[in-house]
Amino acid sequence: MKQFKLHAVSKKARAGTLKTAHGKIQTPFFMPVATKASVKLLSNEEVEGTGTQCLISNAFILYLKPGLETIKKHKGLRNFMQWKHSLFTDSGGFQVLSPDFCLKLSNSGVLFRNPFDGKKMLFTPELSIKIQNSLGSDVAMCLDDVPIHSSSLPRLTQAVNRTIDWAQRCKKAHKNKKQLLFCINQGGTVRELREKSISSLLEIGFDGMAFGGLCIGETKEKMFRTIGATITELPESMPRYLMGVGSIRELVESIALGIDCFDSCFPTRTARHGKAFSSKGSLNIAAAKFKNDLKPLDKECNCFVCKTHSRAYLHHLFKTKEENGMKYLSYHNLFFLQNLMKKIREDIKAGSFKPEKYA
RNA sequence: GCUGCGGUAGUGUAGAGGUCAGCAUAGGGGACUGUGGCUCCCCUGGCCCGGGUCCGAAUCCCGGCCGCGGCC
Fold first, then answer.
1. Domain at A13-264: CATH architecture
2. Does the pLDDT of residue A359 top 80, yes or no?
3. Taking the CA atoms of chain A, what radius of gyration do you get in angstroms?
4. A296: preceding bond cis by omega (within 30 degrees)
5. Which ipTM was obtained for this model?
6. Closest nt to residue A271, judged CA to C1'
7. Which bases of strand B have any atom within 7 Å of the beta carbon of a protein residue?
8. What pLDDT score was predicted for residue A100?
9. Is residue A117 among the annotated active site residues?
């Protein structure tokens, strides 16, 4: 992949650059989610301030609302939301399969009910790609079939085969030459299925490879074992994306296995629920012990929240449901995470990356 | 002074002889991982006080105390 350049490898951990139509992303990197074209509670300037290089939005959700017409009138999603840097779009595979939408899953696609008008519609690989082409994101994701983690072997096998078939259809439908296209492997925590998924997808040929259907309830040990055992099948030149991972420990350990790219709602959602990342483990700011704590969330963090506000103040904002509390913790968590990613990139380049160091 | 109504977790309330006394909120703790943004789970905590009737009383009766209303 000529868009991806590796600069350094420290054991299995990699540092590189992913070039998109709108910038160079230093890897490994983390994307906050802007599902509905906005990182919840934060302005673009604030998101930039956290050190974020790239966001990920959601094709399916944006297709439902505001719809493609509005976004086309703005000449694309980046322009619509005024995000100046790189942007991924997720296919919508993860969302459309939720019981809220999904009526019937079949080889042709996902029959779903549009909650805004009640109409039944078929969401297909071709439609997902068409939407993502119109949105004009820098990286589009293939539509995949994501089985729940407790699925039977036949169901996992079906999902692997269907995801391969859908990836083929996505590739065929993909017309936007400025947009990279990443595929997604499946297979639960069954090594043979993952390997089959990976080899078939490699044959079709994509700009990047995502691990899908992980971190959805299986044990962390199984997740890491699965990634570790199958990531070796990938060519070095291919960027590897672990979808849906956003907690410190999982990020660090996945980077140690050779993952380059992540996205997750975890840092911002957990922030809205009062939990702040820190170098000494996360803290629940609403807990009574912080009522009179004058210290910042993390004394080593340079974010404006830590430089300005005490834990006691943030505790107060949560207890009184002032929404700045959620905003400040969202900002801090993203800043903390992006700062950690930066340190990790530097350490990989310096050859001093050790997973134990950060968690 | 007389009379009526009412007193149930910190707060607001349900409960009309047998309830593990229900609910909401506050308080304490936990969860959240390709987000339909204020979610979910767990825990603590209560029948105003005395008597009486009854196998059994938050519930019925009597007396007190307190609150609100009405009348002298």
1. Alpha-Beta Barrel (3.20)
2. no
3. 20
4. no
5. 0.90
6. B32
7. 26-40
8. 86
9. no
Q: Pick the catalytic residue: A138, A263, A298, A347? A: A263
**A293 has catalytic annotation:** no
pLDDT digits (tens, 9 = 90+) for A211-256: 999 999 999 999 999 999 999 999 999 999 999 999 999 999 999 9
Catalytic residue, from A90, A138, A260, A347: name it: A90
> What stretches of A158-248 adopt beta strand conformation (E)?
180-185, 208-211, 240-243
Tell me, in Å, how far CA of A286 is from C1' of B20? 32
Between the CA of A24 and the C1' of B22, what is the distance in angstroms?
Answer: 60
Strands (E), A70-149: 86-90, 102-105, 110-113, 120-123, 139-141
pLDDT of A2: 86
In the prediction, which pLDDT does A264 show?
Answer: 97
Q: What is the mean pLDDT of residues A30-59?
A: 97
| Location of each CATH 3.20.20.105 domain in chain A | 13-264
Protein CA A318 to sugar C1' B22 (Å): 29
Q: Is residue A117 predicted with pLDDT exceeding 80?
A: yes
